[in-house]
Amino acid sequence: MDNGNHETTNQSEIARILQVDKSVICKDIAAIREQAQENLQHHIHEVVPEEYQKCMIGMKRNLKEIRTKTESEAEAIDDDNTNTNTNTNINSNTTNGVF
């Protein structure tokens, strides 16, 4: 954290280099801090919730797609098992190729 002397020294040095009164530098720094705080508040209250919402929509879409693919694969496995069982039953009921 900055201590008061360090800040004052920096502000004084800036004022000397720019050849302006130190109060100008103090006011400018206060305005910059206020603008930064407003920007942060905007980001927290506007941008973050919007981005969060986008992420949630994307995750729900991904889960739905995964669920659909998983169900399709499960149905395909069931179909394969049904066909295998049917072929097994046909083969077990067949004698020398005759029903």
Describe the structure.
The radius of gyration is 36 Å and the shape is rod-shaped. It has a domain at 9-72. 0% of the residues are buried. It has helices at 4-18, 22-92. The longest helix is centred in the middle third of the chain and has 71 residues, at 22-92. It has 99 residues and is mainly α. The termini are far apart. The mean pLDDT is 81.
Give the tags:
mainly alpha, 99 residues, 87% helix
Overall mean pLDDT score? 81
Q: Count of helices?
A: 2
Q: Identify the quaternary structure here.
A: single chain
How are helices and strands ordered from N to C?
Answer: HH
Strand segment tally: 0
Q: Characterize the overall form.
A: rod-shaped
Query: Largest sheet, if any?
Result: none
Offer a quick outline of the entry.
By secondary structure, the protein is mainly alpha-helical. It is built from 2 helices and no strands. It has a domain of 64 residues.
